[in-house]
Design goal:
The complex is a heterodimer of chains A (about 290) and B (about 325).
Chain A (H helix, E strand, L loop, with lengths): L3 H29 L6 H17 L4 H29 L3 H22 L15 E4 L2 E4 H23 L1 H11 L1 H6 L4 H27 L6 H15 L4 H21 L7 H13 L14
Antiparallel strand pairs in A: 1-2
Chain B lengths: L1 H21 L6 H26 L7 H17 L4 H23 L6 H19 L1 H4 L12 E2 L2 E2 L3 H24 L1 H11 L1 H6 L4 H27 L9 H14 L6 H15 L7 H15 L4 H31 L1
Antiparallel strand pairs in B: 1-2
Classes of the chains: A mainly alpha (about 290), B mainly alpha (about 325).
C-alpha cells in the first residue's frame, strides 16, 4: 500500500489540474451559459499542438508557447466566433449538443491526422522523489501542484484585484446591469473564452506527461472536471477549485483503499450525495428562480 | 386545398409504413440489421423525446436504460424465459430506476436531472463491466436467442426486422395516445410554461417525474429488443456515448415534435453508414455535419421544414391579402 501522504499529494496535484479545467468550465457557464461538453477534448488537443511544434523542430519551451497561442486562437476565439455566437441565442441545449458533436469531431480529427496511439510527452517538472518529514513524495506531483496553484492564484488575482477582472465578474453576475454601467460585455465574454483556452492549455501541459497524449484521454478528464464543477458549486469559481481538489483526492484515495474496479464510481456517488443534500454545491449559492 | 391536405398526411403515413414493410424484403443481411437498429434506436429516442421535448428535462442516461433493458432481456432469455416477460421486466425496471433517480433530482429545478443521470450512466456501465457473475463482465453475454412469436421462428434477419418494426409501431401508437391524453397535454404545458402550468393546478414535479420515468421505460423496451437483435452484448455499446448519441438524435430530428426522433435516429444510424466509403473519416464528417446542421437550424431538421412551411403560408396569405385589397379597390 502506498504512503498516505504521497497519495494525498498526488491526489492534490491531480485535483489542481481538475480545478483548472473546472474553473474554465464555470467561467464559460457564468458569462455566456455555455455548457462545454468538449472541455476534456479541449485539454487533450493543445498537447498535440505542442507535439506537432516539436516535430517541426521547435524546442520544448517554444512548443509550449505555440500550443498556448494556438489553443487561445482556435479553442478560445474560434470556438466563440464559429460555434457559440451563432447558436447561443437559440438557448442552452442546442449549443450543448453541438459541443458534444465537437468533442467527437476533435477526437476523430486527432486520430486521423495525428495518431491513434498514445504518444509520450516531456514533463516540465523533473522526475524524482524528495523526502519530507520522513515521507517520500514524488517531485512531479509537487511541481504540478505548485504550477496549478500558481495558475489558480494568478486567475483569482486577475478576477478580484484588477479592473478587467471586476468587469468580468459584473458581466457574470448580471449582463444587463453591466451593460448599463458601461462595461463592454461582448469583449468581456470573449476574454473569458480566451482565459478558458489559456487554462486548458496549461492543464494540458501539466496532465499529458502523466496520462500520455492520446485522442481519447479527454473523456475521463472532461467528466472529472464537470463533476468537480457541480460538487463545488456551478456558479462559483472558488467552488470549482474546491471541487477539483476534493475530486482529485477522493479519486486517488478510493483507487488505493476502495477497489480499482469501482474507483471511478466514488466521485459519482459523492456527486449524487451532494445533489441530494446540498444541490447548490459545497460553496455555491442557491440560484433564485426568475419568474 | 385544405380538403387535399386532410388526406395527404394519412396517405403519406400509409405509404411510409408500406415502404418499411415491403422494400426491405430485397435487402441484404447487413441492410436489414441497419434498418432494425434504426427501429430500436427510434424507440429509445422517442422515450428521450418525452423527457426532453415534452417535459423539458435533460437525461444523460437513456443509453444506460437501453443497457439495463438489454441486460435484463439477455439474462432472462438465455435462462429460457420468453422475451415478452423480459420486455415487461425491462420496462418496469427502467421505470422504477427512473423514478428513484428523478425523485431527488427534481426537487431542485434546472440541470440537476442531467447531473444525476450523468452519474447513473457511468455507474451503470461500471456495474455491467464489473459484476461478471451476472453480466459476464467484459466478455458479455453471447447466444442470446431470438423469440418465437405465435409459433413463427424469428431467427432470420427479415422476420426479426418485422419484430423490431412491430415493436416500433406499438410504441409509436402508445406514445401518440399518451401525448393526446390529458397527461400528454400536461407534459406540453410543463415545457411551454412551468410556472403557469403550476398555477393552473398541474402538479409539475409529479408530471415531470412521470415523463422521465416513462421515457426511461421506453429506453428499457429498446434495450430488450436490442439484445436479441445483436444476439451478443457487452458493456461497451452502453457507455455514456450512447446516451449522448440518443440526445443528439432527439435534438437533430427536432425535439418536442412527434416525428423528430424518427428522423434523428435515421441520421444517426444511416449517415455514418453512407459515409463509410470515406473510411476513417466518417465519424469526423458526421460530427461536422451535425454541427453545421445545428448552426443552420438549432431546432433540428423538422425546424427547417417548419420554417419552410411557415414561409410558404405567409407568402400565400400575403398574396391573398393583396388580391382582396385590389378587388376592394376596383369595387370602389
Amino acid at each position: 500500500m502506498s504512503d498516505l501522504l504521497d497519495l494525498v499529494v498526488a491526489g492534490l496535484a491531480m485535483g489542481a489540474i481538475y480545478a483548472l479545467v473546472a474553473v474554465g468550465f464555470t467561467l464559460l457557464w457564468q458569462t455566456s451559459q455555455t455548457i462545454n461538453f468538449a472541455q476534456g477534448e479541449f485539454v487533450m488537443l493543445p498537447a498535440f499542438f505542442m507535439l506537432a511544434a516539436m516535430h517541426a523542430g521547435a524546442p520544448f519551451w517554444l512548443a509550449i508557447l505555440v500550443g498556448i497561442v494556438l489553443s487561445m486562437m482556435l479553442l478560445g476565439l474560434g470556438f466563440k466566433l464559429l460555434l457559440v455566437d451563432p447558436m447561443l441565442r437559440h438557448g442552452v441545449l442546442p449549443l450543448a449538443i453541438a459541443t458534444m458533436a465537437l468533442a467527437t469531431g476533435i477526437k476523430e480529427a486527432v486520430k486521423q491526422f495525428y495518431s491513434a496511439e498514445a504518444s509520450p510527452f516531456p514533463s516540465v517538472v523533473p522526475a524524482g522523489e524528495i523526502s519530507i518529514l520522513g515521507h517520500t513524495v514524488s517531485l512531479q506531483s509537487l511541481g504540478v501542484l505548485a504550477l496549478a496553484i500558481a495558475a489558480v492564484v494568478g486567475l483569482t488575482a486577475l478576477l478580484n484585484r484588477t479592473s478587467i477582472g471586476r468587469q468580468m465578474q459584473a458581466v457574470a453576475q448580471n449582463p444587463n446591469v453591466a451593460r448599463i454601467i458601461g462595461i463592454p460585455v461582448a469583449r468581456m465574454i470573449l476574454l473569458t473564452f480566451l482565459i478558458n483556452a489559456f487554462l486548458i492549455a496549461v492543464a494540458s501541459v501539466l496532465i499529458t506527461p502523466i496520462y500520455l497524449a492520446k485522442f481519447s484521454s479527454g473523456e475521463v478528464l472532461g467528466q472529472a472536471a464537470f463533476i468537480a464543477a457541480i460538487v463545488g458549486g456551478f456558479n462559483q469559481i472558488r467552488g470549482a477549485i474546491a471541487g477539483g481538489l476534493l475530486i482529485g483526492i477522493v479519486d486517488n484515495l478510493s483507487a488505493a483503499y476502495v477497489s480499482t474496479q469501482y474507483r471511478s464510481a466514488v466521485p459519482l456517488i459523492l456527486l449524487i450525495v451532494i445533489i441530494l443534500f446540498r444541490p447548490q454545491g459545497l460553496l455555491g449559492r442557491a440560484e433564485e428562480r426568475a419568474v | 386545398m385544405s380538403a387535399i391536405g386532410k388526406y395527404i398526411r394519412p396517405a403519406l403515413g400509409l405509404a411510409v409504413v408500406a415502404a418499411l414493410i415491403l422494400v426491405p424484403m430485397s435487402f441484404s443481411r447487413y441492410g436489414l440489421f441497419i434498418l432494425s437498429q434504426w427501429a430500436v434506436m427510434t424507440i429509445a429516442a422517442m422515450g428521450l423525446n418525452l423527457t426532453l421535448g415534452y417535459a423539458g428535462q435533460v437525461s444523460l442516461a437513456q443509453g444506460a436504460f437501453v443497457g439495463v433493458g438489454a441486460y435484463a432481456a439477455a439474462i432472462m432469455t438465455t435462462h429460457g424465459l420468453p422475451l415478452a416477460s423480459a420486455l415487461v421486466v425491462a420496462m418496469l425496471l427502467c421505470f422504477a430506476i427512473g423514478w428513484l433517480l428523478g425523485y431527488p433530482a427534481l426537487r431542485v429545478q434546472h440541470h440537476y436531472l442531467a447531473f444525476v443521470t450523468l452519474a447513473f450512466s457511468t455507474l451503470a456501465f461500471l456495474v455491467f463491466r464489473n459484476e461478471s457473475w451476472l453480466t459476464g463482465g467484459t466478455y458479455g453475454i453471447s447466444n442470446i436467442p431470438r423469440p418465437h412469436i405465435f409459433g413463427f421462428a424469428t431467427g432470420k434477419p427479415l422476420p426479426f426486422y418485422y419484430v423490431c418494426l412491430g415493436m416500433l409501431g406499438l410504441v409509436t401508437s402508445a406514445t401518440w395516445w399518451l401525448i393526446r391524453s390529458p397527461w400528454g397535454r400536461a407534459f406540453v404545458a410543463l415545457r411551454e410554461n412551468p410556472i403557469r402550468a403550476q398555477s393552473l393546478g398541474v402538479d409539475t414535479r409529479r408530471y415531470t417525474l412521470m415523463a422521465f420515468a416513462i421515457g426511461s421505460a421506453l429506453g428499457g423496451v429498446a434495450g430488450a429488443i436490442y439484445a436479441p437483435l445483436t444476439q451478443y452484448i457487452d458493456p461497451v455499446p452502453f457507455d455514456l456515448s450512447l446516451s449522448l448519441d440518443l440526445l443528439m438524435m432527439v435534438i437533430v430530428g427536432g425535439s418536442g415534435s412527434f416525428f423528430g426522433p424518427f428522423l434523428g435516429a435515421m441520421i444517426a444510424v444511416l449517415l455514418p453508414e453512407w459515409l463509410r466509403f470515406t473510411e476513417g473519416y466518417y465519424l469526423l464528417l458526421y460530427a461536422i455535419a451535425v454541427i453545421l446542421l445545428l448552426i443552420w437550424s438549432p431546432t433540428g431538421i423538422l425546424g427547417i421544414l417548419d420554417r419552410y412551411l411557415a414561409d410558404r403560408r405567409t407568402k400565400v396569405a400575403s398574396a391573398q391579402r393583396a388580391l382582396a385589397k385590389s378587388r376592394l379597390e376596383t369595387a370602389q
